[in-house]
Specification:
Length: about 425
């Protein structure tokens, strides 16, 4: 296959190149100080992000690592069935029966199990070791400070309110640029617990894992473009600190269980509320468009509005990004809708909708990267409530940078998706 046919053939991969360029231009235009943008960091982060994509999806050794981790995670969430079967009985294994799949009894308990498991890994220092290992490569390559790099990497394993605990003592002394990296990396990734849950839905786990790792340089890149580092910072390594650490393995399990329970209840409540409100909004929009059409008919006009819904509006707004991903036809419309749903509502609903749409395998793979992040408006409140408690003096920054953070994190996810679009 020639280079021309590869980029301009049946799959229009040239659109991904245009998309990457467009995202960088957007980052430049929305920067608070364009003269201070570190070109070396931008190029290094882009190169590292693309290398990670190639390493994890195209190089046999990297693919073997991803496959091994994928199988281990899939095996792990099978263990959660033991607890679910004991507590919920037939409700936990109702697939294929008249009950159908019951989200509250088959998915939310998995979050509790993985919360306890991640807490146990943290107690034994495994999470810290992996984070430190990756940090030794990323930090000198990008020239970022130890604290912001540590937090950006941690967000790929922990949640957006748990990862900042590792650098709690440094939050109060961070510059605005460093703090923005903490915020964007939190919204541009999802926790290891939810990666397992999304995988159980049927989202390709190898792409979820790759997206999570690619988001590390991607979120740093977008954060440093929008709010460049203007002050000199200490670039040395930073050791993760966790003042309120568990006293023993049992304590770690109990704390992780409680954290997982809180997360599961939050996810369940958010889905219940948002899905209901979306249904209400769609009904109101549909009735409004029907009323307008009736008015047009009454005055003798042949104009007709389509039946409006949030899904349709999202598909209009985000269609350019779906085109940049190389999607076309029904895949492009659905992709645009899902990207909008992820930002306006949350990634949980976006992933659930994606699996119901009968999209092409390539579209599912690309959209996995575009959707794999907490970058939505509700997470602004989560960060204010979580990080604001750890460092109350940073609350004004959290409020000021919230919307910009959602925008930067969503662009970082799309950047990963467009790079993948060049490879598959």
């Amino acid at each position: 296959m020639s280079v021309i046919s590869y980029f301009f053939g049946e799959i229009p991969r040239y659109s991904s190149i245009l998309g990457i360029f467009c995202i960088l231009v957007i980052g430049f235009l929305t920067s608070v100080n364009r003269k201070k943008i570190n070109i070396r960091l931008v190029l290094s982060a882009l190169g590292l992000q693309f290398f990670l994509a190639i390493f994890m999806l195209k190089i046999p050794f990297g693919m073997d690592i991803v496959n091994y981790i994928s199988k281990a995670i899939m095996r792990l969430y099978q263990f959660s069935f033991a607890g679910m079967n004991f507590v919920f009985g037939a409700l936990a294994v109702s697939e294929g029966t008249s009950w159908g799949n019951i989200f509250a009894f088959q998915v939310l308990p998995m979050i509790i199990f993985f919360g306890a498991f991640m807490s146990l890994l943290f107690y034994f220092g495994i999470v810290q070791f992996v984070v430190s290992l990756i940090g030794k490569v990323v930090r000198p390559l990008l020239g970022t400070s130890g604290s912001e790099t540590l937090c950006a990497i941690s967000n790929s394993f922990l949640g957006q309110t748990e990862a900042p605990l590792l650098v709690k003592e440094y939050l109060k002394t961070m510059t605005k640029s460093e703090f923005f990296v903490v915020m964007v990396s939190g919204m541009g990734t999802v926790s290891g617990t939810l990666l397992a849950v999304f995988s159980s839905f049927g989202v390709p786990l190898e792409h979820l894992l790759t997206a999570s790792v690619m988001a590390i340089p991607g979120t740093i890149l977008m954060a440093k473009m929008m709010i460049p580092q203007e002050e000199k910072v200490k670039l040395s390594d930073v050791t993760a600190t966790f003042a309120d650490a568990a006293k023993n393995p049992v304590d770690a399990i109990s704390r992780g269980t409680v954290d997982g329970l809180n997360l599961a209840l939050n996810v369940g409540a958010m889905l219940l509320a948002f899905l209901s409100l979306v249904a209400l909004a769609n009904a109101l929009l549909g009735n409004c468009s029907l009323g307008v059409n009736n008015f047009f008919e009454l005055i003798g006009l042949s104009w007709k509005l389509p039946s409006l819904s949030l899904n349709l509006i999202f598909s209009w707004i985000c269609y350019p990004f779906a085109w940049f991903l190389g999607l076309s036809g029904a895949d492009a419309s659905a992709g645009a809708q899902l990207i909008g749903t992820k930002v306006a509502i949350n990634e949980f609903i976006a992933f659930t909708d994606m699996l119901k749409m009968n999209l092409s395998p390539r579209a599912v793979s690309l959209l996995t990267y575009a959707l794999c992040g907490f970058s939505n408006f509700s997470c602004i409140g989560i960060q204010i409530g979580g990080i604001g408690v750890l460092a109350p003096s940073t609350r004004p920054w959290l409020c000021e940078l919230g919307l910009r953070c959602v925008f930067a994190a969503a662009l970082a996810n799309l950047l990963s998706a467009m790079m993948i679009g060049l490879l598959i």
